[in-house]
Amino acid sequence: MHVPQLPTAELHHPTRRQILAGTCTLAVAGAFGAPHAAAQAAPHRFRTGAAEVTLLSDGTMSAPLGWVLPDRSSAEIADALKPSGRTPGDFPLQVNVTLVRLGDALILIDAGSGPDFAPTRGKLADNLDKAGIKPDAITHVVFTHAHPDHLWGVIDPLDGGTMFPKAKHFLPAVERDYWLKPGVETTVPEAVRGGAIGTQRRLKELGDRIEITKAGTEILPGLALVDSAGHSPGHVCVHLRSGSDQLMIGGDALTEPVISFARPDWPWGADWDKDRAIASRKRLLDMLVTDKIPLVGYHLPWPGLGRVERAGTAYRFVQN
Ligand SMILES: [Zn+2]
């Protein structure tokens, strides 16, 4: 998931002085709801077999109802939310970035929004620092897809280079080629159109630092990409396996803690191909339940970690 169409975000280029002075105010300030506490949350660490996993907040956002689920009435949404005690309103969304230490490798899965987007976002660099992780210690950056809230944070706003100078950067070929197409902004859902040009610019800045990959590839032994196209053309989840333990880093395949699970066949405003997104979501849910794989959701309530259970003909997310 990403922010709604916000063309002004791309027009604002903070100067080096503004960034260094911390006085950069963004044109999009106030476009989304108030920040939540998770942006300041301490890193959340746990183990998956021999791997050490750290969840880090890049911040928060709150997306308007009509943008998230444009095809559903507020009565339908109220009915879906009822068991959770929530009522329709803006959808609060966390931005949970996953870091995996696997042997000598330190793998960052998605890179947040960076400082150019909105004041409640772009906290990853600070939270990496608080976790004692230097940017040049990252050996791999693996993108689930190229939407702004997953990709833009990889670019250093001071020099246009990568924030992670020693890392290999992995993106599915389908995803890279789609976003680099001239006129891509005319082919994305209206809800994400404002970010298309910015994504293209950043992919050009990354250039041949991007190592092309595809669903099914094992980036490292025990770390494989799982096809979940639909939210974007080349969306992948990242499946970590170590010994008998597993973890699925789900990107944006499952974004909302109630509706994505209870109504997996509802189309979402930000999905590039709604039918493919629904099919991917259902396939992933079935896999998570059948194989008992814990899930980290990029936008689920901080820190985004939990498990999926069957609930009638659908599912529910049970937070750890
Ligand atoms: Zn997202």
Question: Could you explain the architecture of this structure?
Answer:
- The protein is built from ten helices and 14 strands.
- The chain has helices spanning 7-11, 16-21, 65-68, 74-81, 124-130, 148-151, 173-180, 196-206, 259-262, 274-290; strands spanning 44-48, 51-63, 91-102, 105-109, 140-142, 168-172, 210-213, 218-220, 223-227, 236-242, 245-249, 295-296, 305-311, 314-319.
- The strands form two sheets. A seven-stranded mixed β-sheet has the order 1-2-3-4-5-6-7.
- Strand 10 and strand 11 (245-249) form a beta hairpin.
- The chain has one domain (7-319): Metallo-beta-lactamase, Chain A (4-Layer Sandwich).
- It is α/β, with parallel strands linked by helices.
- Zinc ion is lined by residues 1-2, 147, 149-150, 252, 298-299.
